Amino acid sequence: MNSQNNLSFFVTFEQTINFIRNRFVAIAIASIVISLASSLLTYLIMDPSTFAATMIYYSNPADIVGAIFGILLLLFIIYIFISSVMIGIIYNLSTSDKFDLKLVLERLLPAFLNLLGFACIYSIIVIVITIVFSLIFAIIGYILPSRAANILILLSCATIGLFLSVIIYYFCASLIRPSSKGFFQKFADCHKLTATQWKAPLLMVLISWVINVVLFFISAMLGNNIVVMIIYSVLSTFLGFFVYSFFFRLYSASNVAEKPNLDDNNQNNQKVIS
């Protein structure tokens, strides 16, 4: 049977809805706590007055760039940590109906270290891709009219972004359940799955992008206040849980995932796949 058919979007989507619905309260509470914590940390790091004072303090442009890079790096590490927490929570809720901090912490450090390694490798890859495509688009700019060239650049960047998101989500899905596979095996598996089983995940990523854009514009229209920002953050985090769970099912159903041996004490693990 074709591998794409094995990972039907609608079947996986329905399974994910059932998973989220059965654990709605726990995931909703987790989304609120994570959103409040991330918003607070982001505000403390990106406080406008502190940021402006920092820019005034540094007179050298190189120092300003260094300060901005340090802030962005810290925010990126916080994002990786939050993603690791979400991975731990999904693992917890996929093995138990109740929230268990021990299960969350069990996956937190391995997920964080793997995501950090993934980010380091892909930082180099993205830099190389950016340089190559900049040269290509510079040549295309001399050949095509400016409007056509801009449309081509936009479509190319969107396509690359979509497939890169699929790779990242597949990699995150591989971290949810404990596995004997090493980092590089998981790294290779997420690229293999993206190349062979991309239809359902690509559609899911596209839908999540559209929802995030809609939420962003709604929040922008409602005004820049803390209540709207928190609601937007909570909904985005909840959507993140849904996408992670969706990819977890895709990964669990794939031929690269290790199949757990279920016994009487962990029959609930089967809920992850069913």
Automatic annotation (TrEMBL):
It comes from the Bacteria. The keyword Membrane applies. The keyword Transmembrane helix applies. Keywords: Membrane, Transmembrane, Transmembrane helix. The chain crosses the membrane at residues 24-46, 66-91, 112-145, 151-172, 202-223, 229-251. This is Beta-carotene 15,15'-monooxygenase.
